[in-house]
Each structure stands twice: as structure tokens, then as C-alpha cells.
């Protein structure tokens, strides 16, 4: 298998806030140091729920890309693109739909959950039912190995793995597979070929998972020696009787964001308790200054309890041990006032946002920079997507000439 490739998408349905930063984007910035990363604007996904307000999507696309760049997503390390600019996603979605049992989609937990939650919208559409499959196409088309997702999206990755398995099972059986696979084994050279055969036997006869892993890494190391087609055959030959055309991705679980909002609930647009990523300083200051505190602290002389105060939750995200100690002591003894207590939080949020605002300014001043980053990213993504589609079309017998 190739090196780990990370893919993730985000829906453009409004401006990003500090909850997105602490929950998702910080993680993207870390991953780009370690993996080959693809991050995309999931505009078609946004249409599955916002089909009647496309103007929101249109407004959010470029702002969102600027937000990504602002937090430090680096176009020199990660490929950034827009889903609808790579129409191959739609083609793969369509082709996969031919082999997707409707019941699998109806059983994806987000399907019923979201319909119940978003009651103001009619989500009885074909597009909404199919959206996990579109997500599968997004992932499989890049042969991504790792997909960072929150807990709620794990079933989508599981679903994607099942679709990949089903596809390989149905279409991976080229005629003469066994002979071709054996010929490919020979190309490894006699020593490696012998090792491959041993590992394969150990896996198939004794179910030895370690042997399977060793065989896969053996193929990893031989990347330069064998063609893509032979590698797919050798991978498929290990586990079953067919060629591996689509790769099963792994979910990379991102810890749920505990970023509290201005009212102590989780920060979320629907609770109206957010601070946006690039919100201006005066507005941030005002929002925090007017945050509710422990309701028992009516007068300055009343003692308070940080456990009952949303400001304390922000201290837990932003403050060091000394400051937290100062809050605990000062609040419980009424030696500090709430405005005083909020100041270190205000300072910390502003300090966090400062480099974001500065980086964003560069792109706001020169929008062609952003356009170019995305157009390079789309081009790179399309090349990879086209490769996979060539294999998929061939496997499905669509190579008429
Ligand atoms: N479905 C994801 C969400 O709603 C966004 C998404 C679309 C995605 N395609 C993806 C995430 C592929 C990871 C990989 O948040
Ligand atoms: Fe909350 Fe700080 Fe006021 Fe205590 S002093 S109630 S922790 S804002």
C-alpha cells in the first residue's frame, strides 16, 4: 500500500468559529506535518441539506478557505480543493450507487437523526439519503488510508469500507486473475516471492493477521519494482481471490471538541454562543465581558463557585495553572471581580486570533492568491481522481472504444 494519505472535507454552511478551530482545524494543522493531506470544501454535501439556500454556500466557500489558511493549513503541505471542481466524485458516486443496497443507506444512523433534528427542512430527498455514499466516493477516489472524523461520522467510514469490499468483490475478478497474480509474485524476485507466499499461506490457512500485515509492508517496500495493477493484484491475492481496486480507509477518531461557548454549552452556531475565528477585537472583548457568570454572585462581595460559571470553562481551555489557581482562590473568596477574572481569557483569545487575523489579511488583500491555491489543489486532486476512475471504469466494463 502507498504511504498514509489523509482526506477530510468540511461543509461550507457559515463562518467558522473557535469551536471548529479547537475541534477540527488544529488537528488538520498537526496532521499536515506527518501525512500527505487532502482537505476539501464539501459544497455538494452542503447542498444535500441546504439545497434551498445555495447563496449561503456560495458565500461560505471562499471565507472557509481563508479560515483554513488563517489557522495555518499550509498549501505547500496539504492539497486544498473544492469538491464540485472535481466532477469525478460525482461519477464515482453514480457508479457506486449501482451496487449500494438501499437498506445500507437507510440504516446509517445520521440519516434518521438528522431528519429528526432538522425538522424545518424536508430531508426526504434522494440526495440526502445518498450523502454517505457521496462521502464514500470522496474518500475512495483518492485511495485515502486515514479519514479524521468525529464520533458521529464513524459509521460513514464503516459504510465506506463495506462499499469498497463489495466493489472489489464484484468487479475485482478479472479473468485469469490467479495466473496474473502468480506472475506478479515472480516479479518480486525469488527471495521476496518465497516470503510473500509463506505469509499469504499463514494468513489464509491460520488467519494470522500479523502475517497479513507483514505481507502488506513487504509490498509497500517493493513499490518501485511492481506496477500499480500488479500491486492491486498482490494485495487482492493475499486476502481473497480478486484484485483490490478500491482501498478500505480507516477512521482516525478526533476527540470530541469540548470547546465551551459563551454560555457554557458547547460552542455551536445553533446555540448562538460563538466567537468566530477572525472576529474583530472589540467584538470579542465585548462578548466575553458580557458573558454570564455564576448566578449566585450578584454583588461584587458575594463569593462565587467557578464550577457554576462558563468563564471558568474558558479558563480551562486558555489559562495556565497559576491563573487557574488565582481564579479558584479569588472567586471563592470574592477577592477578585468577574470583570477582572475575564481579562486573562480575553487576552488569551485575542492572542490566539492575532496570527490568524494577520495571515487572513494577506489573502483578503490579494484574493487571487486564494484562487490560485485552490486551482492548483483542484488540478492535483483531479489527476489522482482520474487515475482511480480509469481503474473503476475498466473494472466495470466501461472501456468501450
Ligand atoms: N460529511 C462530513 C461532514 O458533514 C463532511 C465530509 C464530506 C467528509 N466528505 C468527507 C469528511 C470525506 C471526511 C471525508 O462533516
Ligand atoms: Fe466566574 Fe470568575 Fe466571576 Fe468566579 S470570578 S463567577 S469564575 S467570572
H and E string: EHEHHEHHHHHEHHHHHEHHHHH
At CATH's second level, what is the architecture of the largest domain?
3-Layer(aba) Sandwich
- Name the bound molecules: tryptophan, iron/sulfur cluster
Instruction: Report the radius of gyration as a whole number of Å.
Output: 25 Å
Number of helices: 18
**Span between termini:** 31 Å
Largest sheet: 3 strands, parallel
Mean pLDDT: 93
Tell me the domain tally. Answer: 3
- Can you list the strand order of the major beta sheet? 1-2-3
Question: β content, as a range?
Answer: 5-15%
Shape: elongated
How many runs of DSSP E, i.e. beta strands? 5
Helix content: 55-70%
Which superfamily, in CATH terms, is the homologous superfamily of the largest domain?
Answer: HUPs
**What assembly state would you assign to the polypeptide chains in this entry?**
single chain
Quote the CATH topology of the largest domain. Rossmann fold
Per CATH, the class of the largest domain reads Alpha Beta
Give unreliable regions as ranges: none
Instruction: Give the structural class.
Output: mainly alpha
Amino acid at each position: 500500500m502507498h504511504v498514509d494519505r489523509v482526506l477530510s472535507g468540511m461543509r461550507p454552511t457559515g463562518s467558522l468559529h473557535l469551536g471548529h478551530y479547537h475541534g477540527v482545524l488544529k488537528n488538520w494543522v498537526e496532521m499536515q506535518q506527518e501525512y500527505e493531506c487532502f482537505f476539501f470544501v464539501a459544497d455538494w454535501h452542503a447542498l444535500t441539506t441546504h439545497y434551498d439556500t445555495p447563496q449561503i454556500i456560495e458565500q461560505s466557500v471562499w471565507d472557509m478557505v481563508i479560515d483554513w489558511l488563517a489557522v495555518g493549513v499550509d498549501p505547500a503541505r496539504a492539497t486544498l480543493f473544492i469538491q464540485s471542481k472535481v466532477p469525478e466524485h460525482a461519477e464515482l458516486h453514480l457508479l457506486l450507487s449501482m451496487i449500494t443496497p438501499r437498506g445500507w443507506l437507510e440504516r446509517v444512523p445520521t440519516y434518521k437523526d438528522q431528519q429528526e433534528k432538522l425538522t424545518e427542512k424536508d430531508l426526504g430527498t434522494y440526495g440526502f439519503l445518498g450523502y454517505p455514499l457521496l462521502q464514500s466516493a470522496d474518500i475512495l477516489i483518492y485511495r485515502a488510508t486515514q479519514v479524521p472524523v468525529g464520533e458521529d461520522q464513524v459509521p460513514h467510514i464503516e459504510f465506506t469500507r463495506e462499499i469498497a469490499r463489495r466493489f472489489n468483490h464484484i468487479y475485482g475478478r478479472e479473468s485469469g486473475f490467479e495466473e496474473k497474480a502468480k506472475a506478479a509474485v515472480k516479479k518480486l524476485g525469488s527471495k521476496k516471492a518465497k516470503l510473500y507466499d509463506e505469509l499469504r499461506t499463514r494468513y489464509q490457512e491460520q488467519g494470522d493477521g500479523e502475517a497479513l500485515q507483514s505481507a502488506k509492508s513487504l509490498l509497500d517496500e517493493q513499490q518501485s519494482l511492481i506496477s500499480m495493477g500488479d500491486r492491486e493484484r498482490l494485495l487482492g491475492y493475499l486476502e481473497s481471490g480478486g484484485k483490490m481496486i478500491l482501498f478500505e480507509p480507516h477512521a482516525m477518531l478526533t476527540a470530541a471538541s469540548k470547546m465551551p461557548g459563551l454560555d457554557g454549552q458547547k460552542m455551536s452556531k445553533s446555540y448562538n454562543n460563538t466567537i468566530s475565528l477572525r472576529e474583530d477585537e472589540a467584538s470579542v472583548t465585548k462578548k466575553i465581558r458580557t458573558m454570564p457568570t455564576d448566578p449566585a454572585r450578584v454583588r461584587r462581595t458575594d463569593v462565587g463557585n467557578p464550577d457554576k460559571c462558563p468563564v471558568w470553562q474558558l479558563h480551562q481551555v486558555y489559562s495556565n495553572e497559576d491563573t487557574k489557581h488565582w481564579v479558584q482562590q479569588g472567586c471563592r473568596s470574592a477577592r477578585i471581580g468577574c470583570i477582572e477574572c475575564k481579562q486573562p481569557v480575553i487576552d488569551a483569545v485575542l492572542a490566539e486570533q492575532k496570527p490568524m487575523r494577520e495571515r487572513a489579511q494577506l489573502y483578503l488583500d490579494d484574493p487571487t492568491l486564494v484562487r490560485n491555491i485552490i486551482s492548483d489543489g483542484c488540478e492535483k486532486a483531479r489527476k489522482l481522481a482520474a487515475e482511480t476512475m480509469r481503474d473503476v471504469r475498466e473494472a466495470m466494463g466501461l472501456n468501450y472504444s
